[in-house]
């Protein structure tokens, strides 16, 4: 797994997508920081993080679109399938590499928070809540994108598919409002990424929300392993 992790991490920075993801993510974070905090003369970073929630949804597919698709297109996936590495190790190595790139991009928000704290008190519980929430959201969306990337060799299709599935999972709470059966509506609401993100925005660390995101990440990793293992057997 470590070898796959290093290989994938090098690939992220040998090709444009890794740099593009970090640059665009930090560009948006910088713009919102200037608009809401510096120009707006405020130490409240809620608005910035709320906007970064949307940015994360749009940018994660760019990061994940090549994770499996590129190997499949270049036929290097056959080498991975024959390598003395478990399918789970391959998938986890790729997931962790993408997650590290995402974490590097996210780090700018903590730098911004420290900058603000030099001039006025900041609500660290809210900031850390948003940061952890965004990290867990990103982990789940990366797992979603990894699965979609496994199913196609076309990176554009992988990006679009990853965005559509992620967007659907976030909007589930809105769709639940259309369901008349209250039990079913509650179940659908509980599956929404948006529902479990709200407590983090208030600085509330609910174990159920953390478990939800970790479970969704594990679920999509499992589905990716199954899809990849099917190709190994074939």
From TrEMBL:
Please report the record's description of how this protein sits within the membrane. Multi-pass membrane protein
The GO molecular function terms of this record are: ABC-type transporter activity
Q: Which GO terms describe its cellular component?
A: plasma membrane
Compartment(s) where it occurs, according to its Swiss-Prot or TrEMBL record: Cell membrane
Q: What sections of the protein cross the membrane?
A: 20-39, 51-69, 90-115, 127-149, 156-179, 210-228
List the InterPro entries: ABC-2_transporter_component (IPR051449)
Q: Which UniProt keywords apply?
A: Cell membrane, Membrane, Transmembrane, Transmembrane helix
Q: Which PANTHER family match?
A: MEMBRANE COMPONENT OF ABC TRANSPORTER YHHJ-RELATED, MULTIDRUG ABC TRANSPORTER PERMEASE YBHS-RELATED
List the protein's name: ABC transporter
Species, as recorded:
Anaerotruncus colihominis
Q: What is the lineage of its organism?
A: Bacteria, Bacillati, Bacillota, Clostridia, Eubacteriales
């Amino acid at each position: 797994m470590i070898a796959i992790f290093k290989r994938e991490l090098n690939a992220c920075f040998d090709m444009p997508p890794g740099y593009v993801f970090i640059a665009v993510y930090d560009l948006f974070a910088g713009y919102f920081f200037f608009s809401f905090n510096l120009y707006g003369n405020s130490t409240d970073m809620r608005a910035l993080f709320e906007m970064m929630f949307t940015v994360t949804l749009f940018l994660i597919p760019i990061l994940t679109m090549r994770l499996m698709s590129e190997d499949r297109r270049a036929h290097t996936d056959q080498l991975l399938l024959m390598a003395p590495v478990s399918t789970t190790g391959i998938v986890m190595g790729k997931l962790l590499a993408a997650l590290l790139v995402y974490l590097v991009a996210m780090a700018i928000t903590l730098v911004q928070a420290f900058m603000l704290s030099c001039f006025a008190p900041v609500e660290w519980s809210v900031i850390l809540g948003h940061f952890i929430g965004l990290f867990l959201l990103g982990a789940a969306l990366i797992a979603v994108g990894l699965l979609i990337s496994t199913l196609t060799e076309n990176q554009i299709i992988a990006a679009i598919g990853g965005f559509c599935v992620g967007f659907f999972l976030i909007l589930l709470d809105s769709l639940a409002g259309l369901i008349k059966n209250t039990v079913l509506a509650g179940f659908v609401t509980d599956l929404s990424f948006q529902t479990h993100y709200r407590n983090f925005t208030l600085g509330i660390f609910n174990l159920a929300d953390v478990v939800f995101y970790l479970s969704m990440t594990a679920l999509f990793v499992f589905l990716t392993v199954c899809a990849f293992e099917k190709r190994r057997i074939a």
